[in-house]
Amino acid sequence: MTIPKIRVTIVDDHQSIVDGYRFRLHNFSQVEVVAAVSYGDNLEPALKSHPTDVLLLDVNVPTSPENPNQYPVLHMVPSLLQQYPDMDILMISMHSERSLVRAVMEAGASGYILKDDSQAIQELGSIILLVANGGIYLSEKVRHNLFKSSTDKEEIALSTRQKEVISLSAAYPNNTTHELAEKMRVANSTVRNLLSGAYLKLGVNNRAAAIAKSRQMGIIPSETTDVTLPIPKKKEKSN
Predict the structure, then answer these.
(1) Are residues 131 and 52 in the same domain?
(2) CB neighbours of 86 closer than 8 A, spacing ≥ 6?
(3) pLDDT tens by residue, 4-60
(4) Are residues 14 and 80 in the same domain?
């Protein structure tokens, strides 16, 4: 039985960078680049023509040939995920500012790679597999910037809904995002965003690690252990 390939669309206005990504992914058998566009306005037509599982989106891509201003990614990421709830978005940028990364991730992105992160670029195929299977990926410098001052309890406290989805994930570890969404009666994209937000706060990049960290922090109960209850003694019948 042939396993379906993960379909990738690339959005970047530098042909040399697109060619570099194609080179990295060419021999990665699980991944197929189905489209590449240079401008933000060309993205939605490309997605309609080429069903996509993972979108590689440059934060600084221009909107169109006539409009060189940056494509409004903070507006478009949630909009794209609403239209394509099963698609994951992996952001690529030269910028590592904490506020930008957090805003992009909170908008629903599944990862953030720095263009000068040579190790991540070399491992691009594996990173695409990770996010396509529900994980998130952050370049080390980005992760450091996000968490270097996260000592405040408010920084690491999960929301009620994030606790709910982690609790469900712990109860049903083999469930897909779709199955968790059905249990919560919300859209797939909502569950994915809740999980991604929880991963960021916990400093992990997948569901299993989030469950383990949540148990360690006491956010959800530890794994159940067998407890032998004392058997009550029968009352002796009086003669």
Answers:
(1) yes
(2) 53, 188
(3) 899 999 999 999 999 999 999 998 999 999 999 999 999 999 999 999 999 999 998
(4) yes
